[in-house]
Q: What sequence folds into this?
């Protein structure tokens, strides 16, 4: 199919971690993510999908981590679909009231994640958003069934009925991809949370990963009793990004931002993240 990923080098392992970069900001995120994956000592391939908004020279910082780089297009959706899911219209119909999306956020790019099902050279893949860090080896996720994702937990129990597509498991299949496209773009359809609402609809019996495989950063201050560095495998910086200087929640998220900066630069990465201070300990230290 036109627009499917085209790679720069031959395939490697049977399994792959896949991320998506749609602009230069997410290249920053992918730098930290790939460094964290290499430190987690996975045997899986690392795959970076890039959309036309990212040039090859933008990806120079990633090459030290030896990922497979794959160019791909947005999905071939209709003009009417694109208009309904355009940033301004979608955010008006489904406003983000809990946190701030960065100015570079383009909702239509979210649907590119469905191209994971076109990566048929792999038996199984795990998608991880570029604004995340892998803190412990996650290779056991390749043995999980299709489709698994963690719940969108960052405020309370009501969050558990919705998935967050920042991390999910998939088994590539062109047949599945074609079926997804046929269901995605129907007259007047509106996916309120873009790819997340679609995936909930396509996989109504989606299986929940432990929240520790996609720990959302707001848990740090909204649900501190749920935070456990010993168990967190993947930390996800939803809403405001850690490379955004001085965003309104930066002071409350300072330890998490500092951790991301360490992975982004390679300088000062903790030898053991399971021993970091939790929310209560950090608050006590600040108060003393």
A:
């Amino acid at each position: 199919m036109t627009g499917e990923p085209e790679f720069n080098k031959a395939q490697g392992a049977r399994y792959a971690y896949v991320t998506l970069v749609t602009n230069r900001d997410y290249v920053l995120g992918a730098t930290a993510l790939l460094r964290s994956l290499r430190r987690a000592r996975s045997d899986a391939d690392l795959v970076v999908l890039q959309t036309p908004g990212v040039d090859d020279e933008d990806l120079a910082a990633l090459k030290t981590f030896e990922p497979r780089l794959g160019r791909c297009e947005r999905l071939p959706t209709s003009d009417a679909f694109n208009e309904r899911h355009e940033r301004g219209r979608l955010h008006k119909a489904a406003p983000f009231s809990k946190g701030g999306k960065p100015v570079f956020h383009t909702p239509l790019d979210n649907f590119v994640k469905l191209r994971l099902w076109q990566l048929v050279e792999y038996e199984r893949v795990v998608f991880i958003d570029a604004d995340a860090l892998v803190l412990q080896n996650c290779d056991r996720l390749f043995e999980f069934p299709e489709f698994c994702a963690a719940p969108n937990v960052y405020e309370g129990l009501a969050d558990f009925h919705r998935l967050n597509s920042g991390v999910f498991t998939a088994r590539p299949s062109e047949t599945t991809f074609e079926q997804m496209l046929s269901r995605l773009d129907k007259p007047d359809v509106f996916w309120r949370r873009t790819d997340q609402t679609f995936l909930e609809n396509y996989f109504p019996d989606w299986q929940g990963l432990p929240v520790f495989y996609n720990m959302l950063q707001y848990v740090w201050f909204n649900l501190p009793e749920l935070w456990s560095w010993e168990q967190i495998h993947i930390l996800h910086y939803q809403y405001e990004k850690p490379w955004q200087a001085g965003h309104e929640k930066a002071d409350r998220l300072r330890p998490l931002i500092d951790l991301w900066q360490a992975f982004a630069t390679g300088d000062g990465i903790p030898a053991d993240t399971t021993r970091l201070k939790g929310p209560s300990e950090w608050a006590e230290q600040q108060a003393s």
User: Anything to note?
Assistant: The chain has one domain: 6-287. The first helix runs from residue 24 to 39. The chain has a mean pLDDT of 91. The radius of gyration is 18 Å.
